[in-house]
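I'll show a record.
***
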Amino acid sequence: MKESISFFSGFNIHDFWFLGGAALRTLWISAVSITIGTVLGGLFGWMLYEGRLAATLLLGPVLDVFRSVPLIIQLVLFYNFAPIVGLDFDPFASGVVILTAYTASLVANVARGGIEAVGKPMRRAARSLGLSYWQDMRYVVLPIGGRAVFPAWVGVALGVMKDSALVSVLGYVELLKASQILITRTQEPFLILSLAGAFYFALSFPISRYAAKLEKRWAQ
C-alpha cells in the first residue's frame, strides 16, 4: 500500500494536511491583525468622536486612505517600501501591519458609531450619579454601545479574515497561496478550490454562529 492515499489523480492526503496547515496560518494572521486592529480602531474611534483638532485634520484623512485604497496595493507598496527605510519585514509581518491598519480604519467608524449610539441624556444621568468620565465610558458607553455595533464588528472581522488571502501576493503561504501551489502541481482546480472554500467556511461559520448566539442572549 502506498504511504499516501490518493483521492484524485494528483492529490493525496499530505496535500490535504498542507491545506489544513495553511488554514491555520490564515487564522493566525487574521486573529493577530483583528485583535490589534480592534484595539487601535476603538482608540481612533474615540478620538474621532471627541472631535479633537488633530484627529479631525490628521487621523481622519489617514484612515480614509486605508479604507479607500485597495488592500492589495497597500500590501505591495508597504512590502517593497519597508526595506528602503531599513525595516526588514517578512511577508507575515508586512501582512500583519497592513491588515491591522486596515482593520483599525474600519473599526474606527464602528467604534465612533457605538459611542454615538448611547444617548446624551443617559450619559448625563450617569455623570449626575457621580461617575467620572472614564467610569461613564467603561460602565455605560462600552456595554451599551458595544452591543449596538457588535454585528458590524463581526462583519469587519469576517471580511478581514477573507481579505487576508491577499497576503498571498507577498509570498505568505496562507490558504489561497497553498491552493495555488497545489493547483499548479496537481491540475485539480475544482477539488482544491472546493476544499479551500470549505476551510474558509469552517473558519468563519463558528464565529458568525457564536456572534448570533451572543446577540440573542443580549436581546433577552
